[in-house]
Amino acid sequence: MTRADERVGLMEGPSALPRKNGELLFEAPWEGRAFGVAVALSDEHLYHWEEFRARLIDEINRADASNASATYYERWLAALEALLTARGVITRAELDGRAAAYLSGERED
Amino acid sequence: MSEDHGHSDSHHHPEPLSPAEARARAIESLLVEKGLITTDAIDALVQMYEQDIGPLKGARVVARAWVDADFKGRLLADGANAIAEVGIESSGNQLVVVENTPTVHNLVVCTLCSCYPWAVLGLPPTWYKSFAYRSRAVLEPRAVLRDFGLDLDDSVDVRVWDSSAEVRYLVLPERPPGSEGLTEVELAGLVTRDAMIGVARVAALARAER
After folding, report:
1. Which member of A4, A17, A106 has the closest CB to residue B52?
2. Domains in chain B, ordered, with CATH?
């Protein structure tokens, strides 16, 4: 395991990670998972971190422009979805189907 | 919600998922199935970032030293041992804690590369690794400090500590005037990363921006 990546930890401006007293702040466990997945895929060279960050800034700007109440990690998740579907890593249909299965309780693990 | 002991295939879930949580789980489970990530790797990565990224550990050490003179004595005598008392592992390096006083100001640099007290300060700031900082901190520390907005009187003795693979340095900043009534936890909230590198003072009220 490598150590924390500065390009992730030290993002500035609107994409800066939410922190409390200098440390990472996750409001719910899924936010931590979404954070970890995006960073892990960059570590695995599925994309460059800057590509993810550009998507994140897009989503932040989009949500701000429409006065959406989406939280930072909801925007993060939208950026991850956009990047993965654009790359064909997962399809929108796969994602929608799997998310629906979790929402309905059909799938739990 | 009923208990489901012995019914491992039950579809009961204690709480319905939020849409965002369902999508986060969907993405993770699909990527795991495709062999692109593992759940364990994500666990380890999140934990590492939570632990490594913030200067809060160092701030807790400083605040303890401000309120507990005996601890401060032990900290200055043997940094690695003292931080172990507050549950921080020193990552194997020697940790030397240097104290700022009204007449002495300490500044930490790593002229060769970017040695940094990870265990207490987490990620180093980008400028810490810059050639400009590494070269100028030793040659003209007062000018460097002025660039950070810290104008020291000529009577203050500036000491520069060059980190190495074996020895890491942490600055124990001066406790700010006006902080007498604060608790240890509140004091820790005042201590910035920059103050523990020695390029800033600790301000009593607002946390200084970088």
Report:
1. A4
2. 19-51 (no CATH), 55-197 (3.90.330.10)
pTM assigned to the model: 0.58
Closest CA to B190 of B180, B170, B205: B205
pLDDT tens digits for chain B (210 residues)? Answer: 444 444 444 444 456 789 999 999 999 999 999 999 999 999 888 877 876 666 778 999 999 999 999 999 999 999 999 998 887 876 667 899 999 999 999 999 999 877 888 778 876 777 888 899 999 999 999 999 999 999 999 999 999 999 988 899 999 999 999 999 999 989 988 898 889 999 999 987 644 433
**Does residue B5 sit at the A interface (CB-CB below 8 Å)?**
no
Q: Is B36 on the interface with A (CB under 8 A)?
A: yes
Which residues numbered 137-196 in B keep a CB inside 8 Å of some CB on A?
188-189, 193
Radius of gyration of chain B (CA): 22
Q: Where are the domains of chain A?
A: 27-104
Active site residues per annotation of B: 110, 113-115
Q: Write down the ipTM of this complex.
A: 0.94
Q: Mapping DSSP to helix (H, G, I), strand (E, B) and coil, where does residue B79 land?
A: helix
